[in-house]
């Protein structure tokens, strides 16, 4: 295993070893200089034979990092599947497939996304016609394999995108089952925002000689994001939100629950805002339409649960608002990672109630970020602050009590 720490230095795409045809496609996309992950991964995929683990946050250009060398390696005359890309969500599968298509230029590389929540018939017919690159969620990919409609025996590249998220979602068994259907002689690539031990164990099990390309941890949170928190009582949150929703606002408002997204969406809509909700209760087709309208700026505000925190690749997002404080530092990082991308500035505003400051401080410490108090924060009357702090302590006590009860029940069952 070779660990490569990224060094910040300027390079051009021309110096990475890409063909002129691919460089034309890159220029057409408007890319000027490669990002750190692209600069490190592309030459290694073009010239080496080692497997690669890339540690990189969403929005740093990792799709192009693996897509450009794969496009170069695809044999157009072979109709077999030559690359399989696994993603944790349907939305990310569609976006990765679209990104690969946009980078293929004039080369006849056929890319198709397969995922659940859609009729399987059209997917079967598309696979039968011949596809070079399949992008999909583990469950649907495995479904096609078992039906005999997806043959991975000719795969040259096996890519896990957002591997940490897939492990969190319990896809490890599906991933291993899919992996067993691929030939031994292939390149394995894993991309992950974080590097938990499970990722390295997976690499040791399924990768041969592999290299770890690490983007420095301070770059996991975009440098161009201005981070603030607003302390506010629940009754004032909506009024405070409207102060942030300026005319140039183009962003995502994150809520804790699906119900909260629906209620907030209706309140904003009644006030005349260009807004839509995105949550897990919606059908896949409805989610795709909503996301398309937001991506094309027909909708300026997206009110969403954490279903949108990963994999929504949208350029030019100006603001992220955490209407509810996220549960973990990882959730916070992935939420605010939607803005401040590709060298553009962004702003992340987090609402906290009195009593939640300690949790916010913990999140900031784990994420390694500085979250400043916003000028919009209001003075909280002492009696309100004391009441909310008592309620927060009671919630923590009840949560810890339930955790201890579960532990003791499990202990008694085992012994």
Automatic annotation (TrEMBL):
GO cellular component terms listed in the entry, alphabetical order: cytosol
Basic and acidic residues bias spans: 383-408
Boundaries of every DEAD-box RNA helicase Q domain copy: 11-39
Region of interest called Disordered, as start-end residue ranges on this chain: 383-415
Residue span of motif Q motif: 11-39
InterPro entries to which the protein is assigned, alphabetical: DEAD/DEAH_box_helicase_dom, DEAD/DEAH_RhlB, DEAD_box_RNA_helicase, Helicase_ATP-bd, Helicase_C-like, P-loop_NTPase, RNA-helicase_DEAD-box_CS, RNA_helicase_DEAD_Q_motif
ATP-binding among keywords: yes
Residue span(s) of domain Helicase ATP-binding: 43-213
SUPFAM superfamilies to which the protein is assigned, alphabetical: P-loop containing nucleoside triphosphate hydrolases (SSF52540)
GO molecular function, one term: ATP binding
Keywords: ATP-binding, Helicase, Hydrolase, Nucleotide-binding
Residue ranges occupied by any Helicase C-terminal domain in the UniProt entry: 240-388
Family to which the UniProt record says this protein belongs: Belongs to the DEAD box helicase family.
PANTHER family assigned: ATP-DEPENDENT RNA HELICASE DBPA, ATP-DEPENDENT RNA HELICASE RHLE-RELATED
UniProt name for this protein: RNA helicase
Species for this entry: Thermococcus piezophilus
């Amino acid at each position: 295993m070779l660990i490569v720490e990224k060094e910040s230095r300027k390079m051009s795409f021309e110096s990475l070893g890409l063909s002129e045809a691919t460089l034309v496609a890159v220029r057409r996309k408007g890319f000027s200089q490669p990002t750190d992950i692209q600069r490190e991964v592309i030459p290694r995929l073009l010239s080496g034979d080692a497997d690669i683990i890339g540690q990189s946050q969403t929005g740093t250009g990792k799709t192009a990092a693996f897509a450009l060398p794969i496009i170069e390696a695809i044999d157009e005359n072979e109709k077999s599947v030559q690359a399989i890309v696994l993603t944790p969500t349907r939305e990310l599968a569609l976006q990765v497939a679209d990104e690969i298509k946009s980078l293929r230029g004039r080369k006849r590389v056929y890319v198709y996304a397969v995922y659940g929540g859609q009729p399987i018939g059209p997917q079967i017919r598309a696979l039968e016609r011949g596809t070079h690159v399949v992008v999909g969620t583990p469950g649907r990919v495995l479904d096609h394999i078992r039906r005999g409609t997806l043959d991975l025996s000719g795969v040259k590249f096996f890519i896990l995108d957002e591997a940490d998220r897939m492990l969190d979602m319990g896809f490890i068994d599906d991933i291993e089952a899919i992996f067993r259907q691929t030939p031994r002689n292939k390149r394995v690539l894993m991309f992950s925002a974080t590097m938990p031990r499970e990722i390295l164990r997976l690499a040791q099990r399924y990768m041969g000689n592999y290299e770890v390309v690490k983007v420095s941890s301070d770059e996991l949170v975009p440098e161009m994001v201005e981070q603030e928190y607003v302390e506010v009582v629940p009754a004032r949150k909506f009024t405070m939100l409207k102060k942030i929703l300026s005319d140039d606002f183009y962003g995502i408002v994150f809520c804790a629950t699906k119900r909260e997204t629906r209620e907030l969406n209706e309140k904003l809509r009644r006030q005349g805002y260009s807004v839509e909700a995105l949550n897990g209760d919606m059908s896949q087709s409805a989610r795709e339409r909503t996301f398309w309208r937001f991506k094309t700026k027909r909708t300026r505000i997206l009110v969403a649960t954490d279903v949108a925190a990963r994999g929504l690749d949208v350029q030019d997002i100006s603001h992220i608002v955490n209407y509810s404080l996220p549960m973990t530092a990882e959730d916070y990082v992935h939420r605010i990672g939607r803005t401040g991308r590709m060298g553009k500035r962004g702003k992340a505003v987090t609402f906290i109630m009195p009593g939640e400051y300690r949790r916010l401080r913990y999140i900031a410490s784990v994420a390694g970020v500085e979250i400043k108090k916003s000028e919009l924060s209001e003075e909280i009357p002492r009696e309100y602050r004391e009441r909310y702090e008592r309620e927060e302590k009671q919630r923590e006590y009840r949560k810890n009590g339930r955790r201890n009860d579960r532990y003791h029940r499990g202990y008694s069952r085992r012994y």
